Write the structure tokens for this entry.
Amino acid sequence: MIFPENFVWGAATASYQIEGAVKEDGRGQSIWDTFSHSPGNVAGGDTGDVACDHYHRYADDVELMRELRLAAYRFSVAWPRVQPDGTGPANPRGLAFYDRLVDKLLSAEIVPYVTLYHWDLPQALEDRGGWTDRDTAYRFAEYAQAVHDRLGDRVHHWATLNEPWVSAFLGYGNGVHAPGRRDPGDAMRAAHHLLLGHGLATARLRELGARSVMLVVNSAPVLTPAQVNDPDARPDQADAAGVERVHALLTRQFLDPVIHGRYPAQVLEAAERNGGTGHVKDGDLRAIAAPIDQIGINYYNPCVVEASPGEPADAAWPGSEGVRFGGADAPTTAMGWPIVPDGLSRLLVRLSHDYPGVPLMVTENGAAFDDVVENGRVHDADRVSYLDGHLREAHRAIEAGADLRGYLVWSLLDNFEWAEGYSRRFGIVHVDYATQARVPKDSALWFRDVITRNGL
Ligand code: FCB
């Protein structure tokens, strides 16, 4: 099973999850510093203060990537390193870290994919309303320019936001993520301002000559329990409407405005029921629809729903009244997430159909398992099987016509898994947090061979 020529193979990480060094070189405070240091928010009271100490160990980490033959590395820039208060002149010492990292990657012949926002908003901006405040979108475009000014001579692949659904609905809806606010109207407003920030930053990056800009979304096929194991199962009318509504809230809420310049009706209805649509100003949708070069897809598991009359909306899903979210009849990872590899092909095929002409890239896919180090090795057969299954489905989607350009595994390293802290290991490389020792797991060696063969 061979992938197309020039298919991009790599791994992904995010700043707050791996860097540590939270007080170094003038870095300001982010909402994740505040949130993780407030008791009760993160399992085990874990914080990103040290994480994988990648800020100091980046050179060795790039060497490891070279040994694993990664062709691409997706990392994110910490906004508070660049603008400690979220506005004003750039902090050259913060940018210098990414400068060194990019040079190191290029010398290892690894193509950098830079994500501008993977959730670490400067706390100073949150104090002024965060993503519920329209001004944050304009600040984001300025920040994007500051990063491009410093790295744009060497970085050609840009992602604006990582998973705006998660930022908006876990950050401002159910409060499971920073900044931990809980208001459905705030979450809807945050989602719109994130999109506006994406559009403004995209236009700015293009003016500055960026070759490729993408938005990265967390997406999933929305399925009834019966459809999980039987793609041909026909849901009844009520279930089918619930499925389409949740698909609109999860995926179309972001990709329809960006690609088609309009919100789906289900999203406008959800906004109407939660504070209205007054925050959507004239011209916003035009700005949001600034052309992008590809869509980044983070896929882990399907979203399983069924109609349930009278059910109140879930706190993370304003507009989901009358729908119940449930589990799937499938084995699960250490996150409790169902393993449904063909969810990936179903998703890629649907997105190709809904957004024709826009290339796709899997920017995250992977799994947490309870890995153990034995005699210096990690035999993570369950992760190899997860990745193998999903790659086969990625290939199947390509054969079915999806324009899939690459696959990045989540994650290079075990790291700070947000509300779960260090208790969940997603890396293909094991990290001993006491010593910071890295051990490539069996999955890393397997992935290296996949890359070498350009297939399975
Ligand atoms: C995604 C995030 C990433 C990581 C994985 C497991 O939602 O983008 O940072 O936490 O989930």
